[in-house]
Amino acid sequence: MRITVLGAGTMGHGIAQVAAQAGNDVVVRDIKEDILERGVKSIEANLQGGVDRGKVSDEEKAATLDRIATTTDLADAVTDAELVIEAVPEDIDIKQETFEAVEDAAPDGAVLASNTSSLSVTKVASVLDDPSRAVGLHFFNPVHIMELVELVVAEQTDEATVAFAEGFVDDIGREPVTVRDSAGFASSRLGVALGVEAIRMLETGVAGPRAIDRTMELGYNHPMGPIELTDVVGLDVRLDILEYLREELGERFRPPQLLRQKVRAGKLGKKTGEGFYVWEGGERVGASDD
């Protein structure tokens, strides 16, 4: 299959990697060459990690990289695509503009997928002349490790598009979970509900971040606690999702003041070196308030 991924950031390069590893020809498009270069280097590093752990052969690594091309030209990227997956910033206007541009340049039969984690796929697709070919494909970070893909069915999505998307997810060795388009879908709605309550517990002094996280890791077998996960996802990303869910679903998703304060201070989590934890070299080294 010929697949185009729009965006070479954390999610985009991960989606490109797993699609190429499954034998698909992939074009990654971003607005700047240096972003594309960083994305390809990240793919190489992920694959090398697989080689080092004995999960990927040197031949598989080379073949995967050979299947990935990059470009800054949108029309060139989608001209013969069978599936286009956007992984652009989580902004409804940007996603709609991207879908409109793709529809103008891509083949009539191409399926257009959004990797949004919470925005309405129905609204994103509403700008299309043919919204029946739009669907949500919500991958999880890190894409090359996480098995789940949330398949979000918009109001306009037809059965053929759903079947195509489910087949694609199966083909790349991931598990599709199909949900109806609603605010936050299943994953983000449940994930932020746990995360926001954990932050409120911090605010009221119930326990420190590590104690809260270990409770969920050891008591509920979560691989990562809700506070640390918020740092990994990004406090700004979590705040945006909460604001959206509050608008759509009500006050139970009201963002805690502590989260707002951290974001205003630029303490966005792992990507800035400090959030609820302190990070060095991508590793958690202590709590922010220690």
UniProtKB/TrEMBL annotation:
It comes from the Archaea. InterPro entries: 3-OHacyl-CoA_DH, 3-OHacyl-CoA_DH_NAD-bd, 3HC_DH_C, 6-PGluconate_DH-like_C_sf, 6PGD_dom2, NAD(P)-bd_dom_sf. It holds the Pfam family 3HCDH. Its EC number is 1.1.1.35, 4.2.1.17, 5.1.2.3. The keyword Isomerase applies. NAD(+) binds at G7, A8, G9, T10, M11, G12, D30, E90, K95, S117, N141, K271. One of its GO terms (molecular function) is enoyl-CoA hydratase activity. The record marks H138 as: Important for catalytic activity. Keywords: Isomerase, Lyase, NAD, Oxidoreductase. Residues 3-181 form the 3-hydroxyacyl-CoA dehydrogenase NAD binding domain. The keyword Oxidoreductase applies. GO terms for biological process: fatty acid metabolic process. This is Fatty acid oxidation complex subunit alpha. The gene is fadJ_1.
